[in-house]
Amino acid sequence: MSKPLKLLLFPCLLSLAILLRSSTADVGTAAYYGPPYLPTVCYGRDPGQFPGSGLFAAAGEGIWDNGASCGRQYFLRCLSSATPNACIKDRIIQVKVVDRGTMLNSLPSRNGTTMVLSNAAFQMIASQAAQVINIEFRQVLETKS
């Protein structure tokens, strides 16, 4: 194979490999909410339901799954926002679902989002100057020992 042909073929094969790579992430929107966080639909008044990091979320109707989302964990990151420079670039967090977005004890910054993040979780990936952000999220799959 001639050298010019090799130089042309390599970028094409690399591009094809990138396009064929399977993607397991979804996109959606996220808002935030503050205390009071208890009680929750998933775990009632149990204060042990919250991760020590304070990174938790309420599931919107699209991922609620009739309550099966309780306890699920997701990796997520901010993709964009109507508020300029709201996203903290290259920051990925892990949140645990502890509540249902439509049943919160305090008002979210915006209704109807995919997830409603705790104040701490939202501030890890975006400025609270933005009431809603576009997110990429992926469920954390449990590994069996």
UniProtKB/TrEMBL annotation:
Residues 28-140 form the Expansin-like EG45 domain. Residues 1-25 form the signal peptide. SUPFAM superfamilies: Barwin-like endoglucanases. This is EG45-like domain containing protein. Keywords: Signal. Pfam families: DPBB_1 (PF03330).
